[in-house]
Amino acid sequence: MLRLRRLWLRSFRNYERAEVVFDEGISAFVGANGQGKSNLLEAVYLVATGRSHRTAQEMEAIRFAETSARVRALVSRRGRDEELEVTLSANEGQSTTQMRVNGVPTTRGDILGRLPVVLAAPWDLEGVRGPASGRRRLMDGALAQLSPAYYFALHRYYRVISQRNAALRTRPQANLEPWDAQMVALGVRLTAARADYMQRLGAEAQGWFSRLGGTGTLRACYRPAWHGQEEEDIAGEARAQIARLRADEFRRGVTLSGPHRDEVDLLLDEGLLRAGGSQGQWRTAMLALRLAERAVMARELGGSPVLLLDDALGELDGERQRRVLQVDREGQILLTATALPEGEAEARVRVFSVRAGTVAEGEWSRRFEPS
Q: How far apart are CA 129 and CA 132, in angstroms?
């Protein structure tokens, strides 16, 4: 069983200090806009993954006029308690991120997977209408938490691509064979892992889409740059593409094939989702994919990841909101909202009032409106 038991914040966003104790089931952080609800979920995501999902510069999360911020979490995992900690520091133009597990300094690769999380947020819509990089993150975010080996292969792959691109730009007749060999070896592993994951995700997605009230057939289809049923086949296709595109790569100074150019097609009734449908259908589809992601991870991990719903209910109608809150009787769900849907049973949701960087457990209301 995976469980987030306690969260401590110090000088994080608009929180000077805060402590939250969690139970199983649903914890709802309710308050007006701008009070710090999303900051709490950002803190959970940061301590779980070593990265913020809201900014590329984690130092922006340090409270105004402070030089450091700290997030700590007490986690139960495999029958043992672990303490995860991330400290952000900014001094004299220098910024650092330090991570610890049980007080021992560690790296992001080691902190990933200790508190598995699945995040659904309003900007998930970019996964439908935005560039392919957002849809690749749909695969990589889950796989990095499931497999340290995948995370390290992904990290090394992008480093090789960066070095290979530099060679293409600065040395017109560079010998690329050392970079090609590494790119193929790492890229084949990524492609095979993504194909396997997307097959499992696709098997879950339609069921969740229907449970959330979606109509039609939802499919998530992996379209790799390098095709093949077995790793040997993928490697052969990779080498053939590299040879065929060599001249174009030297002209353009960029690597033109590989997993960094993979695509995921989101289809509704066999048509591209981004080309049709309403925003409501897009939101329902992306939420279904996140719930499918959670189901796939739960099956592999033997316990449900913590589900983070950052304002994911706001654009859904009341019936779909209730369906989301009924998705799972096991594990933990942390959600933010300005109000809760009517008709939910008191026993199912633990409500916290969030106001100006303070958190307090509130009393249940069918329509909780903070004063």
A: 9
Domain architecture of the chain: domains with CATH: 1-116+305-371 (3.40.50.300), 122-304 (1.20.1050.90)
Burial class for 345, CB neighbours closer than 10 Å (0-12, 13-18, 19+): exposed
Tell me the pLDDT band of 370, cut-offs 50, 70 and 90: very low
Q: Classify residue 117 by its DSSP letter.
A: E
Query: pLDDT by residue (tens digit) across 24-44?
Result: 889 999 999 999 999 999 999
DSSP per-residue codes, 58-78? GGGGBPTT-SEEEEEEEEEET
DSSP sequence for 240-260: HHHHHHHHHHHHHTS--SSGG
User: Is 77 in contact with 67 (CB distance < 8 Å)?
Assistant: no
- Of 37-41, 251-255, 316-320, give the lowest mean pLDDT range: 316-320
- Percent of the chain residues past pLDDT 90, beyond the cut: 74
Closest CA to 38 of 290, 306, 336, 312: 336
Q: CA end-to-end span of the chain, whole Å? A: 37
Sheet harboring 349-355: ordered strands across?
A: 117-120, 306-310, 332-337, 25-30, 349-355, 358-361
Whole-prediction pTM: 0.92
Strand order in the sheet with 104-106: 15-21, 3-12, 68-77, 80-91, 94-101, 104-106
For residue range 330-352, what is the model confidence (pLDDT) as tens digits?
689 999 988 876 655 444 788 99
Overall average pLDDT of the 232-259 stretch: 96
Calculate the dihedral angle through the C-alpha atoms of 184, 187, 193, 198, rounding to the nearest 10 degrees.
Answer: -120
- Which one, of 92, 94, 48, 43, lies nearest residue 69 by Cα? 43
> Which residue type, as a one-letter code, is found at position 49?
T
The two structure tokens encoding residue 6? 């306690």
Name the token pair of 134: 């957002």
* CB-CB contact of 197 with 143 (8 Å): yes
